[in-house]
Amino acid sequence: MYDVAVVGFGPVGQLLALLLGRAGHDVIVLERWPRPYELPRAVHFDHEIGRIFQAAGVAEEVRAVTDPVPDSYEWRNAAGEPLVRIDWSGDGISGWPTASFFGQPELEAVLAGAAESLPTVTVRRDCEVTDLEPGDDHVRLTTGRGAGAGQVRARYVIGADGANSFVRSGMATSVTDLGFFHDWLIVDVVPHERAEWSPMNWQLCDPQRPTTIVSGGPGRRRWEFMRLPHESIGDLSSEEAAWRLLEPWGRTPENTTIERHTVYTFQARWVDRWREGRLILAGDAAHQMPPFAGQGMCSGLRDALNLAWKLDLVLGGQADPALLDTYTSERSEHVQHAIGMSLALGQVICVLDPDAAAARDARMTAAGADPRHALPPAPPPVLGDGVLQRAPDGSRARGVGHLTPQFAVTHRGRTALLDDLTGGGFTVLTDGTAPLDALDAPERAFLAAIGATLVPLHADGAPPEGYQDAPGGYLSHLREHGHAAAVVRPDFYLFGAAADGAGLKELVGQLREQLQQPAGAADRRPVPESLTTVAEQ
Predict the structure, then answer these.
(1) If you compute the radius of gyration of the chain from its CA atoms, what whole number of angstroms results?
(2) Residues 6+ apart with CB under 8 A from 513
(3) Please, which residues have CB within 8 angstroms of residue 518's CB and are 6 or more apart in sequence?
(4) Which of 243, 333, 370, 462 has the fewest CB atoms inside 10 Å of its own CB, making it the most exposed?
(5) How do residues 122-136 score in pLDDT, each as one tens digit?
(6) What is the sign, positive or negative, of the torsion defined by CA atoms of 292, 297, 301, 307?
(7) Number of DSSP helices (H) and strands (E) in the chain, helices first
(8) Residue 516: which residues within 8 A CB-CB, separation 6 or more?
(9) Contact (Cβ atoms closer than 8 angstroms) between residue 96 and residue 70
(10) pTM listed for this prediction
């Protein structure tokens, strides 16, 4: 019996297989199609997703097939005047470029290759799941028909099988649909010449034909054209229609090759319960959103990391299966933020009435193209209720559930981004070694059992086993908020923070309680030397 069966082998399924396989769990992937899809689809990921790729051990391979954005993401009206500029240049707080563009076939080749190279991962292509039978301690999956029929048993099944998920059809969950439906023609092209595209990515908010012009990754460009009310989907489905719409942009068969053209219906919806017993959903099987914020695939990859670290603890006996219920509560609220942001941007570009477009233009240009004022306000992207520090009254502590930054530090003579030095997982950041003195042997054993790394930070003169921080790095961040310690989860979100050693001791106790760790679980892994000696450094 396998630990996990992943149904679907797109980017979300690939990342899940890779993360769980690297953690030592036996994973089987069941993919209905016989070979990888060779045409572009998703094209963008942000700095947080770059950090996730780093955690999966494929950082350099991913960097090799992506283009970081050197400028702003612009929205212009029909006259070419800027309505909003979103700065995508430079690095984001995760230590990766704020925005990167890629071709999905190349990205999938990296992820699939890494997953399939693991002895713990089995991938079966041309293997369609046709039935699911949940049991008390496993799920029985029936695959194929006729001579290709077979059965697989797994402790958990993850449906990463897209918007028409078969796994979701075996669950009783409902769906919240916001009723956003717009058809767009997507045209992916390969220009024959090398050119500098400035801006690299932008939206033409012209009521005569709203249009998106973005990178499709190295050597590719993408145009997206909104279907107008008098047009049918059939009117836009031919290659002739694609060339007709590309021609005003100077793209012709003489200088461009069309790789793909297809009409998509953009939607905004999510599943209300992402876990039902041993069946779990991730990616498009759990949610869909318009592409205007570039967060569709990104949200699915966040799902994968959130779910992977929790499943790792549950499968290893370090946490109670009830921990998996926090996957829905945390990710659903976060993904609703991404959907809301995508809708807000869609409501800016999907305007076909000339008078409404003129009013929009006047409002946004008056704001000076500043996204803080030109766009509707959106809630911050924080996790919903889950594995997060509690205040004394039992409510969620202030500031928890936010994405934490990643800085470069020096450890044992090596300077690198923190995750490259720690290997990921839970991280306990402290201002020097003093806060760690409050942790007793059982608390250190618990931290060892969940794979946590203690990171005592020093502004200068770090001891040999300590971590030398850089100016403007972690210590500045901690001290600015009055914290002497912080616990960061494996998905980089803040579990909680403390003002001193006593607070850190309480924080570790809360984490242990929330993981609902079975008695004796902390005795199942040896305590690393670093956890027993670090308080003395």
Answers:
(1) 24
(2) none
(3) 317, 320
(4) 370
(5) 999 999 999 999 999
(6) positive
(7) 16, 28
(8) 319, 320, 322, 323
(9) no
(10) 0.94
